[in-house]
Write a structure and sequence with these properties.
- It is built from 5 helices and no strands.
- It has helices at about 1-40, 55-65, 80-95, 100-110, 115-170.
- The chain has a domain at about 55-160.
- The radius of gyration is 38 Å and the shape is elongated.
- It is mainly α and about 170 residues long.
- It starts with a helix and ends with a helix.
């Protein structure tokens, strides 16, 4: 009989314990709902995932910025569209005048977002082109400097030859 009594008491405690756990979990869930209602998230998640432009769209923006290509109106909101268009507008006008500044802007643009691979490849090609422009500008500067030195040397030689002719005539 004592065995049945112990079993009944154990069953009652187990039932009370399980019911209490369920009650406590309901209270915890209600507290969480109440906390969320009192302190809403200041930055709600966007309803749609951000959309990156395709590489062909980026190339079309580039062609439009540099002139000669008319792009159809696209009302889609792409990630980084303003920054990309701003970069292309600057790049097309200043690629030969200020390639270092163009490269700086490109590096900033490249680091601004998590671009898809095809756009990363396009940025890489752009960097190669701008770096080649910078190298060509440096090479042209070196050639111009060397040519100036040579012209100066030729002018000096010409003056010396003219002086010799004058002294021989006298």
């Amino acid at each position: 009989m004592a065995y049945y009594f112990k079993s009944a008491v154990l069953a009652c405690f187990t039932l009370i314990g399980l019911t209490g756990c369920e009650l406590m979990s309901d209270v915890g869930a209600k507290n969480t709902d109440l906390t969320q209602a009192l302190h809403p998230n200041p930055k709600p998640r966007p309803k749609t995932e951000p959309v990156y432009p395709s590489a062909s769209t980026v190339i079309a923006w580039h062609a439009e910025s540099c002139g000669g290509f008319v792009l159809a109106v696209d009302k889609k909101q792409y990630v980084g569209k303003r920054e990309i268009e701003s970069y292309f507008n600057f790049s097309c006008k200043n690629n030969t005048l200020a390639p270092e500044k163009v490269l700086t802007m490109l590096l900033q643009l490249e680091q601004a977002y998590y671009w898809p691979d095809d756009i990363k490849h396009y940025w890489w090609l752009q960097k190669q082109q701008v770096r080649q422009h910078i190298q060509a500008k440096k090479a042209q500067h070196a050639i111009n400097s060397k040519m100036q030195k040579m012209l100066s040397s030729l002018a000096t030689i010409e003056q010396q030859l003219l002086l010799r002719e004058e002294t021989q005539e006298q």
